[in-house]
Specification:
globular; 5-stranded mixed sheet; alpha+beta; YaeB-like fold
């Protein structure tokens, strides 16, 4: 089965803000961050059931990025992977409560 991705505006903002922060730290690092997020989402699209359910409500799952301490939270709605949040590992998961 082929899966589509949907990244609502709040999750898109998570990604953009993090990329801009990394870019301010070092030129090119923001682009590397974006590549890692895209790669992690790509892994999810290949097999969305490979990652653990971390919240039973809405069957929220999580995939980790490589090289950057970020967690991508998603759920499945039919054939669509919905990215709810992209959060730094030090941030609380409470941000998810208002997004689903």
């Amino acid at each position: 089965m082929s899966y589509r991705r949907l990244i609502p505006s709040l999750a898109e903002r998570d990604i953009t803000e993090a990329a801009l922060w990394y870019e301010r730290q070092q030129s090119g690092l923001g682009e590397k961050f974006l590549q890692q997020v895209d790669a992690a989402i790509g892994r999810v699209l290949e097999n969305p059931f490979a990652y653990p359910i971390i919240r039973r409500r809405h069957e929220m799952r999580r995939v980790l990025t490589r090289q950057f301490p970020y967690r991508i939270f998603y759920s499945l709605e039919g054939d669509t992977v919905v990215i709810h949040a992209v959060l730094h590992a030090s941030r609380s998961e409470r941000a998810l409560d208002e997004r689903v």
